[in-house]
Amino acid sequence: MNNRDSKYYIGLVMKIITSPLKILKIKKGRVLLKSYNAETISCNPKYIYNELKKINRYELVWVLKEPEKYPDVKAVKYMSLKWLYYIVTSQYVISNTGFNFWLPKKKKQIYINTWHGGGAYKDSDNLNNISKAQVKQIKKSAELEDYFISSCAVFTKEYAKKRVGFKGKILEIGTPRNDFLIRNQADDG
């Protein structure tokens, strides 16, 4: 059993341990954001954050492995007790790399996967090259997601549907991190 397989089995145990957290109430307007497994503030979640910050109606919280590197934002440390609290009490949870499948998600929570790439996904069969436990982990993560942001119809078909069997609502709206390019071009012309 490799490290990724063991993560799946540890996740099954975590699902049992964290299930009592479902009793905590969701805080309306709380948005939890995570990029690249909590390594940085970047990519599509960053641009969604920037737009939501302008509206000033939401409590915006970042999940980071090293929150002290970002003193100007509200942040919680990834995989901490505080992170667990925020993930079960946030109305919206946004990530560009999917979610820990063992999370105690509530029915009224909305999970949005913005993904981190774009265009047609050329490696849709790469699930054949990883363990069965890893495939289960990817597919169970997709079951948590309410929305998946796709850059195009080919990506929707090859990645979201064919590769992980995503069943939620797919929004073929491009990538938030590229929206400013179109917006600036429209403003200039």
TrEMBL record:
Pfam families: Glyphos_transf. GO terms for cellular component: membrane. InterPro entries: Glycerophosphate_synth, TagF_N, Teichoic_Acid_Biosynth. One of its GO terms (molecular function) is CDP-glycerol glycerophosphotransferase activity. It comes from the Bacteria. This is CpsK protein. The gene is cpsK.
